[in-house]
């Protein structure tokens, strides 16, 4: 089955792996993270958080340093489910009111946040490993953490307690908003402009929220099983979701409509099979910063690279043992994948030359808010293309 499948698509180029620094039970890597500037990479294995430098010239982790234990490893005291790295925007930090009245100074350097089984969030200084503070309000396991991409050091966390919470690190990490979900919140994503948050849970629905009014904008209905992962396109126009129904959905942020479905099982499963234990749960999905590729990870033992402009079949695939999570590097050159053994594998993103019209589309969408696209006065056919309605 493996050799047959790999004969039709190109095999993705592996660029190495990182292994946990210790042996123990429960070493699963449920989350990985890059610093916003691409200088550091973090992964979790059991109770241990490990940080290693990312070699920007080789576009790969410094594996030699990691293998010689020249890394920062922190025992977080409890099982880790989530990790995120934040880096303050210097210009935003200068505008803070009464910075001298705060206990913690996050204006410089990097901050690492980890989410634990007991519902607590711990913050560390990335460069020294020094513990900074606890964030405590969740009542159950913290499943995912993400810093807002605008450098404001707004931290979002989702949990099995059916909530997503927002914390302001420039205000000593105080929690300022709770968004209640219908079920366990498995994952979420910030839009690139930090104006939207997408959440996905144990129901069959993903929610798109305004990060300004905190109202639900769209209920994304179309999956037949639990939705576990989501990711925005770099222009903020699209959202991809991964589900246990064997599919990845591609959604319009403007309309909430599903524009495409990336199937991982052929022939497509029946309704009852998709809703049950089908053996091809899609565990994770990540949108590449190049705006072309989508990576997905499923229980059938494959990691897939999809080309957004040709979604009939994956462009490249490779085998993986017990994968759990995916994350592209900030420059889009590499894909990281965490496994149940605590090992992290890396692949080179497939080389591609994006069509000029697609680059123009992404440029327009980055500059034009989704709700104002109609104000450009584009011809209907061109507006449909810019809105990705032609996928």
Structure overview:
With 391 residues, the chain is mostly beta strands. Helices cover 10% and strands 43% of the residues. It has helices spanning 2-6, 63-67, 90-94, 271-275, 356-367, 380-386, and strands at 10-11, 13-18, 32-34, 40-45, 48-55, 60-61, 72-75, 80-87, 110-116, 120-125, 131-136, 142-147, 154-159, 163-168, 174-180, 185-190, 196-201, 205-210, 216-221, 227-232, 238-243, 247-252, 258-263, 282-287, 293-298, 302-307, 316-319, 323-328, 334-339, 344-348. The protein has a five-stranded mixed beta sheet with strand order 1-27-26-25-24, with no helix packed on it. Strands 3, 4, 5, 6 and 7 form a five-stranded antiparallel beta sheet that branches. The longest helix is centred in the last third of the chain and has 12 residues, at 356-367. The chain is globular.
Summarize the structure.
This protein has 391 residues and is mainly beta.
Layout of strands and helices, then pairs:
Layout (H helix, E strand, L loop, with lengths): L1 H5 L3 E2 L1 E6 L13 E3 L5 E6 L2 E8 L4 E2 L1 H5 L4 E4 L4 E8 L2 H5 L15 E7 L3 E6 L5 E6 L5 E6 L6 E6 L3 E6 L5 E7 L4 E6 L5 E6 L3 E6 L5 E6 L5 E6 L5 E6 L3 E6 L5 E6 L7 H5 L6 E6 L5 E6 L3 E6 L8 E4 L3 E6 L5 E6 L4 E5 L7 H12 L12 H7 L5
Parallel strand pairs: 1-27
Antiparallel strand pairs: 2-30, 3-4, 4-5, 5-6, 5-7, 8-9, 9-10, 10-11, 12-13, 13-14, 14-15, 16-17, 17-18, 18-19, 20-21, 21-22, 22-23, 24-25, 25-26, 26-27, 28-29, 29-30
Features:
single chain, 391 residues, mainly beta, 5-stranded mixed β-sheet, 5-stranded antiparallel β-sheet, 6 helices, 30 strands
């Amino acid at each position: 089955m493996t050799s047959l499948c790999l004969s039709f698509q190109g095999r993705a180029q592996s660029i190495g792996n990182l292994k946990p620094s210790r042996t123990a039970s429960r070493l699963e890597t449920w989350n990985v993270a890059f610093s916003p500037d691409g200088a550091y990479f973090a992964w979790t294995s059991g109770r241990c958080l490990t940080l290693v430098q990312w070699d920007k010239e080789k576009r790969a982790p410094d594996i030699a340093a990691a293998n010689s234990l020249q890394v920062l490893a922190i025992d977080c005291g409890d099982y880790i489910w989530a990790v995120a790295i934040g880096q303050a925007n210097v210009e935003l930090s200068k505008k803070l009111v009464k910075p001298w009245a705060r206990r913690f100074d996050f204006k410089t350097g990097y901050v690492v946040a980890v989410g634990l089984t007991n519902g607590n969030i711990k913050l560390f200084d990335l460069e020294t490993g020094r513990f900074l503070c606890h964030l405590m309000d969740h009542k159950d396991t913290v499943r995912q953490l993400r810093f807002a991409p605008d450098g404001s050091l707004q931290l979002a966390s989702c949990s099995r307690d059916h909530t997503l919470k927002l914390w302001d690190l420039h205000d000593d990490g105080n929690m300022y908003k709770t968004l209640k979900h219908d079920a366990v919140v498995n994952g979420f994503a910030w839009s690139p402009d930090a104006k939207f948050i997408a959440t996905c849970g144990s129901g069959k629905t993903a929610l798109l929220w305004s990060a300004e009014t905190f109202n639900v904008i769209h209920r994304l209905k179309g999956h037949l099983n639990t939705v576990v992962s989501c990711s925005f396109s770099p222009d903020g126009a699209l959202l991809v979701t991964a589900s246990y129904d064997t599919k990845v959905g591609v959604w319009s942020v403007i309309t909430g409509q599903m524009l495409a479905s990336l199937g991982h099982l052929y022939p497509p499963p029946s309704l009852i099979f998709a809703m049950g234990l089908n053996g091809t749960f899609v565990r994770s999905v990540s949108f590449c910063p190049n705006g072309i590729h989508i990576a997905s990870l499923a229980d059938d033992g494959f990691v897939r690279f999809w080309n957004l402009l040709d979604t009939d079949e994956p462009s490249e695939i490779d085998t993986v043992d017990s994968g759990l999570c995916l994350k592209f590097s900030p420059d889009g050159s590499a894909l990281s994948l965490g496994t149940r053994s605590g090992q992290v594998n890396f692949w080179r993103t497939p080389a591609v030359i994006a069509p000029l019209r697609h680059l123009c589309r992404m440029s327009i969408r980055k500059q034009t808010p989704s709700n104002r696209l109609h104000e450009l006065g584009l011809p209907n056919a061109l507006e449909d293309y810019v809105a990705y309605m032609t996928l």
